[in-house]
Structures
1.
Amino acid sequence: MPEMNKVYQPKDFEKKHYQAWMESGAFRPEVDENKKPYTITMPPPNVTGNLHMGHAMNNTLQDILIRYKRMAGFNALWVPGMDHASISTEARVVDKLKKEGKTKDDLGREKFLEAAWDWTREYGGNIKNQLMELGVSCDWSREKFTLDEDVSEAVLETFVDYYDKGLIYQGDRIINWCPSCGTAISDAEVDHEDHQGHIWSFRYPLVKGEGYIEIATTRPETIPGDLAVAVHPEDERYKDLVGEYVRLPILDREIPIIADAYVDMEFGTGAVKITPSHDPNDFEVGERHDLGQLKVIDEEAKLNENAGKYQGMDRYEARKAIIADFEAAGFYAGAKDHNNAVGHCERCGTVIEPLLSKQWFVEMAPLAKPALEAYQDGRLRFVPERFGKIYSHWLENIRDWCISRQLWWGHRLPVYYCQDCGEIMVAKSKEEACQACGSQNIKQDEDTLDTWFSSALWPYSTLGWPKGTEDFKYFYPTNTLVTGYDIIFFWVVRMVFSALEATGEVPFTDVYLTGLVLDDQGRKMSKSLGNGIDPLEVIDQYGADALRFTLVTGTSPGNDTRFSTERMEASRNFANKLWNAARFVLMNLPEDFALKPLEEEALELEDKWILSRTRATIEEAGKRLDRYDIGLAADAIHDFIWDDYCDWYIEMVKPRLYGEDPEAREGAYQVLVQVLEDILKLLHPFMPFITEEIWSFLPQRETDLILASWPEALEAWHFPKEEGDMAYLQKAIRSIRNARSEMNIEPHRKSMVYIHSGDQAMVDLFKKNTRHLQSLAKMTDLEEIQDPESLGDAIAVVVDRAELFLPMRDLVDFEKEVARLEKEEEKIQKEIDLAQKKLSNDNFVKKAPQPVVQKERDRLEKYQGMLEQIKDNLAKARKKQ
């Protein structure tokens, strides 16, 4: 029988086992109508990315679920894939070209896309290899990329279908524009950061008569685009002014005063400027009042020809100039500090410019309604439930989705324009001739689709929709989505409404939302703080299993978790503990050992106890995993392995393993191995490498652990009485150990234990299990006693329905104790002498600061008390010499 290595070294076997799993096809399920499918599609990481702690935790959780379901008999499929990450990838290729002295326009679209594909093939996909090191058991043969031909076909199918249904339209709307990236971006790609800025107040004079209306704004640079001043229709201050006009002083242009319920009467003066082309709320007001549009800021965030003398100025330069001009004209009313959330591009950090732009949009109202109903009627479930409110709120307040991007890398819009008659055509394949006039002078739209458009189709496009493949028919809808709570509204929502529209079913039934991985001080990991931790470096130092276990223990759905070196070391120690325990068991087995059915009559108390605890742990872990309490499942398995199996059961059976009774020894072998088998099965989803390695040394293996069945909570292993008895004995043993520790008893000293109890059943329980007290509580023998007073000096340990006594004569060498106490007495006396000498010195008492003097007095009092106790103990010890 081959032996395990003496030392746990994960580098020795992690890559070996992953390669073996891959080669054996363990990750690849085939369509099997006799088995129930369980499917997860991996949230596709950006092809440009590298593995960070968030990825590591998210994918560990998915892998735990997949491995558990696979062992539980499901046909478990985990579909991996990558996202083309349009903005991020294009930005990196542009940077590469810039270093070579080239631009996008120098290359042209086709050459640029060739360069982007080259870059993606060379640098993209690193994360795939990194995920493999983590041990993820996804089916790489079904791996998808959002620009794959079949996924792209699903994108075209969806776009054309939406367009034909009137759900996609082209229109002028306010969009988020990134001046740096040069493209529109979705609300989901905007990071709102609190910013301590200012709010400026300006006076717009009335055209008729005297007076003015004062407005306040955080964006004076948009004033040239003002088309109205709005007040609330019920605001008594302005009722007589509605319908009148004010003059924009710096442009000498008249704009109307309108009434709209959008205005908050309590904020500021109750009057607001309306700039329809540069604010989404103002756009809606402008639509209601037919104000028209006036765009004054361009795509480079500079003021344009509509801004008069401010044309060509950067938006912040124009802000200063406009404030100065108002002040010079006497219409500036001052500024106040103001804290507001400013939108930044999540890719480059540039402040977003809300712009009126001709873009392509998805009309959301018809799609949002069924997505909301799916949650309300229970077809869609969130874990934890509180995130359902966020989902509902987002859908109830959703705006139309801008899906066009001014980029080249991505899915190009399937929109074609006739250059002769202006006909717009939408089709899955390129149109050769205009459907209206027959002209062949046709041009495709230059824009690409928002990356989230293809990601929204991910749960079913990866399985073969719209072709209706066998995979799609069998594995869809999927079961569980595991993703971060921070993208619930812009990815989860979009997947749900897209799936309902395309397939008529929710894409998944459960949404498990993870929190963030924070550093040990509770801060978000970031480059700016320099507190990011590379998971691959952690794997290299501690092993993948230790990292995985650290990321899931102590966590709960939707809550952030702190990552620390101490927790990593604890997980590594746990793996080491299991390794050493398994090695101890296996090295003690005889060469001819063979597993046999356990016979109840041959089982000792400790055997029944560990079997019953195994059964309870199997039951609890399964229930926890089914409820997505993955952290609690891990905790239960950890405590069972560390405490019950390693610290108690193995220690309890050692006397049997080394004893002369062959039947007792054989019984211990059988239970040790059979429980170890179940331990490895329970722990495998969490720590797959170490469990597969130990499994490979077990006798009579029939399959690799990854393909083994989840352990069954056998009723035959249910021994509630024995669990109660063992819990009682454990408490007694712990109490004896604690008492010895408190008395500073030397570890090698053993003693008699006397039991006094009015409950004969308790006495019998202790007598039957004398050997456990001998091996675990340093007891020489056990004897029942009726009169505890007759023992003289003894340590008393009180447990339920019994008292245990340890005679002091067995535990203390009084001759040594007298010598120790005399030495201690001498030491304390010196401290007292020193303190008394200081306090008898008048100079010290009168001149030293009062707190210093008081500290010395307290010190003297403390040592005098200690000396009194030592003398008392010394007197008692001398009597017993």
2.
Amino acid sequence: MKKGIKKTKRFIIILISSLLIATTFLLTYFLYEDSTMLVDYGSGSKSRFFIPFYERDNINYEDSELFNDLFDNSVEEIVRMSVIKNQMETDGVYDAEKAVDISSYANRNKTVHRKSVSVEYRLDDLINWGNKGIEYENVSADVVPFPISGEAISIVVARYKSIEDKDLLSYANSEEEYNELVNNLITTTAALFSNYKEYVAFSDKYGVGKTNLLYCVQMYNDDKLVRFTNMEVISSKHTVDEITGLFKNQVKYIYFNPDKMTLATNSQISALRMQEIVNSYNYAFSDNSRIWIGFDNMYSASDGFSKGKQYYESKTAGTDGVELIVAIWIAFFAYLSLFVYLIIKEGRPYYKKNEEMPEEDSIRLRKIDHVPVEFLVVLAFGIIVLDLLVGSYSASYAYSHLFEGIMPYAVIIVASLVLNFTFMPAVLCFARKLKAKNMLENSCILWIIESVRKETLNAYDNGHAIIRTWIPYIIFLLINLILVILAPIGLIIAIILDILVGVYLYKNNKDRQEIVKSINIISQSDIKHQMDTSKMHGDNLELANAVNNIGNGIRKAVEKSMKDEKMKADLITNVSHDIKTPLTSIINYVDLLKRENIQDEKISGYIDVLDQKSQRLKLLTDDLVEASKISSGNIVLNFEKINIVELINQSIGEYEDKFAEHGLKCRFEAPQKPIYISVDSKSMFRIIENLYNNIYKYALQGTRVYIDLEECGVEGATRVQLSVKNISESQLTMSADELLERFKQGDESRTMDGSGLGLSITKSLTEAMNGQFDLFLDGDLFKVILTFNTI
């Protein structure tokens, strides 16, 4: 008997396990925080980088993921900054008076666009317009220089005029054209204002001496080739190869040719990545455009790269991650051990030291364990959903508040306690039900299914053939029709239903096969065979019960027949035994009388008659006893190896004088070698003796008796056949089977001495010694063949 634990101890274990799982989550979060860098790029831009503890001492900062991400991000920003500078500057200086065609600018990213009216504004006016926003006013149709669909139209308030000192309405020839110009104006002002803010930020971030990243971008500005760079040593006189040489001297460099999409670099950035970046600004990078970017590892400027290096070096000198990993696994395995321990002990009653425990295990269920399992499953699902929500919220909160003090850790502790105090009791509840084997106790669904099943089977078992066949078939067709109409879900359900019906038909046919099999088994003399009908219904149940009843009837009849046969054999044995005692006295007294010198012939004749009849009666009783023993199976056989050839020769010698009395001549044919068989010698001699006595009594006098012994192969085994043939003195008017019946004689007048049991005993003894007895009658020819296996 396994012993349980106290309620107090159980609660303490759950509390300790909750603290252990909380410790596991806390250490994991701490390891993640310790391996994560939060890098501030400036301008409110921050990025996180995870540095596995096993890589901290093996990778230099310039080869780290942190550096490559910063470098990739900076390359993208420099390309964008160059495009924006090309929009904002003239000869390297911000040009407020620069003319911007709003239609061309708004459609700059489109490969093909419809020709629009050209309207140019000052760059500074468009940026300010984007900052202040576009306002509208309604004007009547007579003010508009083109036809409109209504009596009034909403137009843009002309906060700024075009370079030609006109408002936007003056450039349109139709309402559609005006609406397109308005859309172009909205797009251009919004884009330029956003680009201007980036222009200011990028100029400060990537200005001369403000970053460790060096760049030079060559592109066309108003059909003039210009270069944007933060390297003062580069001028318009430098060739492409000279500039490339300057950048190749840096620890990391990029030289990209947008014309040919070729890249030369020693960084991890790829040509595909550069192509992806430049493709966003195809309108700006035309022929002879070039991009050079390099990194100066002297770290003379304080920027994101230098701050990243400081973070990286501080993290590489941080906590040893191996110790944290070991601590995490220890806490987790301790939690699992307590969890498994609780599951093993759960449901088992607690017994004090001196309290006697029962030998058999018993499980104590709680009140909640008797609630229908469907409600428990719904409750468990609700707990899982709650735990997922709590877990996801706490993980999201901890991730978003990384490096923000103790608050994320407090959230993790509370979430761990909530998770364990809800999840573990639910698991323990199902553990108790599994141990008690009552998982489906009080199941509502099973109750409904079982009720429907019982009622259906009851109607099926007790109903008419029409009810059991056509009504289910019609219902099946209707259900399939409805489900097919409700395709595709209904079609899937119909397929499942058809499969279930197929399984039912298979089971029904399988039951029929079992019935046929049982009939064959019973027909092969296994009358004790009974079918299991507990899972059968309808016609199969009736057939199976009928087969079982037939088997029972046959078994009872056989038992009665065997009982009668035994009673008959016992009666014969007892009567024969009772007759034997006085008969022996009679024979002895007759023998004594024969020894007296009786001169009276009449009295002497009476004595001879008494002697003959008493001897015949003795033979009859002996045959009856022996036949009774053989039929009841009480005969004892001692098998031994004998030479059948020698035995036949010996028996012929013993009966030669007796045969001579009736003028019978015996002719014996046998192989000139010994043939051995395994039989009981006494029984075998009794068989031969019975055959010879039969010949002596019923053979035609003055004829020959043929005895043949030969070996033959039967069914792959060597066997020996003993054949005995003679001519009957009396006409044989019965069949061989009738002649083998007990108390049957060839002489129907029964004038010959004999019991009529000789052939029956001979046949029974032969078969008892695993031999074969065959009797053939052909006219007056009497032929017996005995077959035995040789050894």
3.
Amino acid sequence: MQQRSASSKMRIRMRFVLFLFIFSGFMILISRLFLLQVVQGEMYQERASNQQTRSTILAAKRGEIYDRNMNNLVRSATVWNVCISPAEMTSDPQELDKIAAGLSEILDIDKSVVIEGAADKSKYYLRIKRRIELETYQKVLDFITSNDRDTPDIKGVFFELDTKRYYKYDSLASTVIGFTNFDNQGAYGIESYYNKILSGTAGVIVSAKNALGSDMNFKYSQANEAKDGNSIVLTIDEAIQHVVERNLEVAIVEHDIKERCTGIVMNVKTGEILAMSTKPDFDPNEPDVLKNPLAIAELEQFELEFSPETQEYRDKLQQLRYDQWRNKAISDTYEPGSVFKIVTAATGIDNSVVTLNDNFYCSGGIKVSSHTYGCWRLSGHGSQDFTKAMQNSCNPAFITIGQRIGAPLFQNYLEGFGFGETSGIDLPGEAKGILQDYELLSKPGMVELSSTSFGQTFKITALQMITAASASVNGGYLMKPFVVKQTLDVDGNVLSTTQPTVRRQVISEQTSKTVRELVASVVNGGSGRSSAVPGYTIGGKTGTSEKMDVADKVYVLSFVGFAPMDDPQYAILITLDEPDSRLQDMYGSTIAAPVVGAIFQEILPYLGLEPQFTTEELSQRDAEVPELIGLKPHDAQSMLTERGLRMRIEGNGPSIIRQIPQAWQSMPKGGTVIVFTDDETMENEIAIPELVGLPAREANAELLNKGLNVELRGVTEDGASTVVGEQWPLPGTVAQTGDVVVITLVERPAEPVIPVDAGPEYDEPYDTEPTDMAAG
């Protein structure tokens, strides 16, 4: 009985052990399955997917960028990335070395990139070279493809499609347009601000692989197509942008500008930016390459202390790159100087604290509390009315006006004109500026208020200044500036159009009319004479501001101009930061104003604004061309303006080496003297176009755009009713830049009257729509 009981216990014990063993095994299995399927499930799914499929990214084509006239400025083109599949490449060291050597030579990469990359046989994808163009692509294709039946193709080397950004005009408007980074994403400027619109959505092809790792038949692939980006149309006019940049480049050479210069052309009624430039700038096709000669020299000097391998050198290089990418016109602040007197005048007139009949006495300075402010004319201007004070840019007069306005009103109008806040322009990096604290502005003694009244001791951007100045002459409306006019889908359909936005009305229409009279007088008989353009009414204001936060005595010279003054449409602001301090007569009136005048001379005819001459001017149509060889271009422009002539600059040299017509020849007033500043632009043959039958305006614009001068004969009072009847030289004649084409204008033939009941004798007219010229 005891033996049977012991045997029974043994069986129970064995069953229990067996149960524990089975249970433990089951739990281990469950734990393992939990680990594989839950904890590490995603990892193994990814491994399985990688072994069974291959994913190929399809790059989206980035949208294009056009100027306002649909001239292409930026486009994306197809390029190829070169990739390897290490798992599919040969394991033979000698064969691999040959492949690496061949790819290294074609792609300009180190052999180790291929050899080391091919060593990891668990990988099926490794990019070894990005964005090769067609010529290089063909070389790689020829290298990996065998034309010999006995020699197999090289396995494991393949391509993937990509896109590359191309900037047609290199540095043109580069600080506005910006550039894309290595991942084809917008890094600066328009490219950055509108990145989501331009970039599109990448696609992908997922293809199945067989046991050998090769792609299977196409039916085992699945593709999600890329969606290309939308395009944008700028308000920038490529032709006007070229004119502004050429004149800025000449000014830099003429006056040895140290801290770059800016130029903005704005439509005062809409806020559209027709041109915006900072010079020197950069080429967005190679944005990392320094272009500013001063920056290059600075880096070379830095290299004497720190080698290119050091972090200090790399940091310095990157800082210089940031400097050249920065849009100085919206990101850098400066003290505007006397250009700001437009705002002071507008504020004073709008609040009836000053009228055109008020008189001011200038002895050469004015004492405010314990501080004496000097006038630029040390001997003083004597007694002068308000118009003369504006013409003379008299500091004591404007200090008096500022004190009459008082701190509370001045503060309100500063904010009303947009200072101390961003303008809302559709560009990244806009600065707000730095205004005087109200507590300082309202301090007893009025020192800060006095200095503010003539544009010192506070900082603004060039964009803020031209926007406020435009409000002063356009009827008093502060406009929101913008640089993108439209967005287009991939088929060119308009998705959105930017409408002009009035931020607020700052001054009354009547005040604005009075300000127009004042700024027109500055050009007609004041400090802005050198910005005058024969045949056009120009207004403007000069500025010469000392940089108070710099140890050396250096200046920012500026000029803002408006045209035409009977109905202002366009404003130009030029700022020249730190011209050579050794220059004599270093004022905005002598250095910046001629640059604005030179730009107006070229763009106003292009914009369809015809010159209007008085009867007296028409009776004295010819002027003698002076000797210009050896002069600085913008000095020559001032000389020609006095004679009723215009000037066009060809080249970027510091002085004139040739002129057409030559000195002492006669030419019609309003004609254009072409000056050359370097050898490269001197020879330029032009075929004279067919002009007979064209309206006078079109013929004039056609010749001016080709660099030819025009002599009009048979002019009638109503220019709109005339067409070209004859021309000389004849069409097709080869001419040189600056040659004169004589066109004789005749009355436009009357349109034939078609009888209403003509019936079938007459064909139906074409169904035509009027052409929208607003974009031009």
